[in-house]
Amino acid sequence: MVLSNDMAALIGFGCEAVMYGAYCIVFLTAAHILLQRKRGRRVKDPLIWATAILFLTCTAHFALEFDHFHTTLSSTGIPGYANETSKLFGADLLISLADLVGDAVLIYRCWLVWGRSWWVTIFPSITAIAGFACIMELLHLLLSINPSSPTAPPSIVPLGIAGYVLPLCTNVFVTVLIAARVWYMSRASREYSDLTSSSKTVQRAMSIVVESGLLYLVVQLTFVVLFAMQHPAQAILAVIAVQVYGIAPTLIIIRVGLGYATDNTTANTMTRVRWNRPSMYRNSASQYATNTTGYSTTAAGTDVELEETDTLEDGKKTGAVAV
């Protein structure tokens, strides 16, 4: 059986309805965690704003799709269901907007992980904004060429591919940066601590980075391939993707907020890790540690601070980790 554009659009709406229901649960959980942890500074917290904007964007997209589902089936039925309308153009715009906001959350998190270094945000920010601009131009050209076409005309497909590949590059780049930073700090922690718990927590933080990146990556990459092939199934992935753009960053916030990771996404609630050394090793150890890791190095959103103390146990150098 050949999948038609109309049937693909209907299947996509059903899948999005399921994903949106799951997203509502994820969002309410994240909102509860953020509001409990951010008492007194809720207005200034960018994560609260980003989480709210993401949810409102995905909700608006589902509302437009539901309105199209109801009005089209009641008036014309299945034939022509996938044809573009003014409301569906608005829904397509919201897909790219949700993608842009989701990328902003990941970039913000990468900025924190890298000790608030602005240079790590330059490339992913450019690719994210450039991808959004390409999609805006794609919608403009589609309105001019064939406003009712369910798929993009072949002449503007390359522009659409660029519009979806650039945000994909943003996600891959940011994920690699975070994973590299966490790996570097895990290596440094093993040099100064004999405790296996430090290595386990770092590995858990890395799993969060990989899992959140892969969730986005698989959906985005599949959609780009289907879009380039002009396959009708792109209509299914497109509406699923908009909910994934909201779910993936929100899951990170939940995992961090529940304490399943050492990665604190907010700048104001970072965990302090102190390495305690005896006084007899104070000068040499302090100088070596400062040259190797830096005084206040941030790993996965965690401030790592070298603190000199007089701790001596059985004449041996000991290390203590306080999280």
TrEMBL record:
<feature type="transmembrane region" description="Helical">
    <location>
        <begin position="17"/>
        <end position="35"/>
    </location>
</feature>
<feature type="transmembrane region" description="Helical">
    <location>
        <begin position="93"/>
        <end position="111"/>
    </location>
</feature>
<protein>
    <submittedName>
        <fullName>Uncharacterized protein</fullName>
    </submittedName>
</protein>
<keyword id="KW-0812">Transmembrane</keyword>
<feature type="transmembrane region" description="Helical">
    <location>
        <begin position="235"/>
        <end position="254"/>
    </location>
</feature>
<keyword id="KW-1133">Transmembrane helix</keyword>
<feature type="transmembrane region" description="Helical">
    <location>
        <begin position="118"/>
        <end position="141"/>
    </location>
</feature>
<keyword id="KW-0472">Membrane</keyword>
<feature type="transmembrane region" description="Helical">
    <location>
        <begin position="47"/>
        <end position="64"/>
    </location>
</feature>
<feature type="transmembrane region" description="Helical">
    <location>
        <begin position="161"/>
        <end position="184"/>
    </location>
</feature>
<feature type="transmembrane region" description="Helical">
    <location>
        <begin position="205"/>
        <end position="229"/>
    </location>
</feature>
